[in-house]
Specification:
Blueprint (H helix, E strand, L loop, with lengths): L4 H13 L2 H8 L3 H10 L5 H12 L2 H9 L5 E4 L4 E4 L2 E4 L2 H12 L5 E2 H12 L4 H15 L5 E5 L3 E5 L1
Antiparallel strand pairs: 1-2, 2-3, 4-6, 5-6
């Protein structure tokens, strides 16, 4: 059976990162889903495919940082749109969950508003920049009691510290 461009891309990203487990951690998708996308050729949702492309384009220093930072205590569940830290679970609206997912995918790194807007558009359609400020504000209110912080970076980005 021929290999699709998407499958070939995700396979190359998995090899570059060190396997399907590492790719799953990098794109923040369940391991079983990533295995189906890479090994069985099942089509991946666009957001995860784009993150696989991002892994291919990332420089080695960035990937070393990703590999050495360890696992975050923040766990996101795309099916229930919840964020879990330890035993505490917070349910989130789809838009806030998508913003948090974008920040979590780049934990400890700056995520610029245009990048968040592009990824959020995959979940919610067209998004205004001002709306991103409001989503981040609401996320801060919900996440700070859990010990998580979202910091502003001028001139228009955010960093999640978990």
């Amino acid at each position: 059976m021929p290999v699709s461009i998407q499958q070939a891309t995700l396979l190359r990203a998995a090899r570059k990162l060190g396997g399907c487990d590492a790719l799953a951690a990098y794109v923040h998708a369940p391991r079983d889903d990533v295995t189906r996308w890479v090994e069985d050729g099942e089509e991946a949702p666009e957001i995860y495919f784009l993150r696989g492309v991002e892994a291919l384009l990332a420089d080695e220093a960035e990937l070393h940082h990703f590999a050495s930072r360890g696992q975050s205590r923040l766990v996101l569940d795309p099916r229930s749109m919840t964020a879990t830290v330890g035993e505490r679970v917070v349910a989130l609206p789809a838009t806030e969950w998508a913003v948090l997912e974008s920040l979590r995918a780049r934990l400890g790194r700056v995520v610029w508003r245009p990048q968040i807007r592009r990824e959020l558009a995959l979940w919610a359609g067209k998004v205004l920049t001002d709306a991103i400020h409001m989503y981040v504000f609401r996320l801060r209110l919900k996440l700070e009691p859990l010990g998580l912080a979202i910091h502003n970076v001028r001139p228009g980005g955010y960093v999640l510290h978990a």
